[in-house]
Design brief:
Layout (H helix, E strand, L loop, with lengths): L3 E4 L2 E3 L5 E7 L8 E7 L6 E7 L4 E3 L7 E6 L4 E6 L8 E6 L1 H6 L6 E5 L2
Parallel strand pairs: 2-10
Antiparallel strand pairs: 1-3, 3-8, 4-5, 4-9, 5-6, 7-8, 9-10
């Protein structure tokens, strides 16, 4: 089982940017799809973006054009570049892959707060 550690969150003003990192405990080379998820207070966790091993990406409509997901298999790390941040992007952000989601294995996440 591969475990993930998220980092890079913080407090940022509306319109600002952050880059999140997701570091795996082992190789992610063979993991076909990995995703960034977020959970805002009082809301269910949602998929924000996903990156497929071959290079394809997909995004939730709410972040399309503002967020960019990427993965570096050589560094066992996935990233989420977040630009033009909005208050509604405030949430705890997690990374995971399908078996981890299925089994309920989540990391600590990283808090992103967008506020003046």
């Amino acid at each position: 089982q591969v475990h993930f550690v998220e980092s890079g969150g913080g407090l940022v003003q509306p319109g600002g940017s952050l880059r999140l990192s997701c570091t795996a405990s082992g190789s992610i080379f063979s993991i076909y799809v990995m995703g960034w998820y977020r959970q805002a207070p009082g809301k269910t966790r949602e998929l924000v973006a996903a990156a497929i091993s071959g290079g394809s990406t997909t995004y939730a409509d709410s972040v399309k054009g503002r967020f960019t997901i990427s993965r570096d298999n050589a560094k066992n790390t996935m990233y989420l570049q977040m630009n033009s941040l909005k208050a509604e992007d405030t949430a705890v952000y997690y990374c995971n892959e399908p078996s981890g989601v299925r089994d309920g294995r989540w990391g600590q996440g990283t808090q992103v707060t967008v506020s003046l």
